[in-house]
Amino acid sequence: MGRLSMQKHHKHYAFTLVELLVVIAIIGILIALLLPAVQAAREAARRSQCTNNLKQIALATHNYHDTHKVFPPAAVWLANYGTDSANFRDGGYGATWATMLLPFMEQSALHDQYDFSLPSDHDVNEPVVSTNIAGLRCPSDDELTPTSNSGDTNPNNRYAKGNYAARAGGLYSNENGAPNGWENAQWKGPFTYRPVRSTKMADIRDGTSNTVFFSEILGQPSGGDCRGAWGRVACNTFSPHTRSTADEWILGPNANTKASTNLYDAPPYCGSSSVHPECTDDASDGSGGTGARSRHPGGVNCALGDGSVRFVSETIDRLIWRAALTIQAGDNSTGI
Fold it and tell me: How far apart are CA 41 and CA 174, in angstroms?
């Protein structure tokens, strides 16, 4: 009798197969419900960091203006840069806006290493432009090439990549026309290509709170594609028109064509079969510009001239988008 009592006392109970399957199903449902929330929280944190990066760039731009009384140029074209192999690699491509902002972004050591009289990928400057700078990269773009290959014979491979671009150059004079250079454009952006004169605060007649200065772009991992290279001319500027046909003269955020959205990969360089950034097909000054793009769902972060940062929807009206990218057209971009 005592033995039977002990056996009953020590009897073990286990889950049945049905109970086990129910528990597994409940766990699976909980994971399915929580995972999107976790992913959304992570993206929100990345987007917040991206916003802060743009704020710091905008602040650096204002500090540059306070020091030099002009905004930095989008890029500098060099003359008489020589013909030896070290000098001639990348033609007359000089410094970019990002290079000039280095001392205002706590990167004075890099700035002091850079020789502004030489092309950007000269042996002297290569260690600078091949340096990855966290403040120039959006954490949501995990496909960006981590670093460039110093000494590579392809000039595009010697530059570190970033995700922020200055609004440079001009827009089409009219919907049926072609771009005709910064000085002659009806709608101008805030950043110029030297030797054209630099822009001053007083030139922003549409108001700094109505004008986009910087946008996100997607740097490409391809070695033959310079998009996102922060130290290379025309690779860290953006434009709303990147095709040679007037039919596609205004491109919204994340768009390849004016009717498309959510298209991250850009078309090839217009008029060329090689892989380069999409561009303004501008015979008079050759200025190129990458389209505004990001890995954030629904749009891109943009820094305005007053230092504020706004998230611009990829469904924004193209005329409002155009208005926000000009400095003195007398238009209104309050819709941004």
Answer: 43
Residues whose CB is less than 8 angstroms from the CB of residue 47 and which lie 6 or more positions away in sequence, other chains included: 140, 296, 301, 311
Q: Which residues contact 265 (CB under 8 A, 6 or more apart)?
A: 256
Q: Distance between CA 226 and CA 58 in Å, rounded? A: 23
CA terminus-to-terminus distance, the chain: 86
Q: Tens of pLDDT along 155-185?
A: 555 788 889 999 876 554 434 444 445 555 5
DSSP conformational letter for 8: H
In 3D space, the residue among 175, 134, 158 whose CA is nearest the CA of residue 49 turns out to be 134
Strand-pair category, 75-77 with 93-96: antiparallel
* Torsion angle of the four alpha carbons 45, 214, 97, 185, in this order, in degrees rounded to the nearest 10: 170
Residues 97 and 75: their CA atoms lie apart, in Å, by: 6
pLDDT, tens digit, for every residue of 284-308?
444 445 778 888 888 889 999 999 9
Gyration radius (Cα) of the chain, Å: 25
Beta partners for 300? Answer: 312
What would the two tokens of residue 211 be? Answer: 């004008």
pTM of the model: 0.74
Neighbour-count burial of 46, counting CB atoms closer than 10 A to its CB (0-12 exposed, 13-18 middle, 19+ buried): middle
Distance of CA 238 to the CA centre of its chain: 8
* Sequence-separated (6 or more) residues with CB below 8 Å from residue 267: 242, 243, 256, 278
Does residue 241 contact residue 333 with C-beta atoms inside 8 Å?
no
CB 223 within 8 A of CB 146: no
Amino acid at 100: M
CA 236, CA 20: separation in Å to the nearest integer?
56
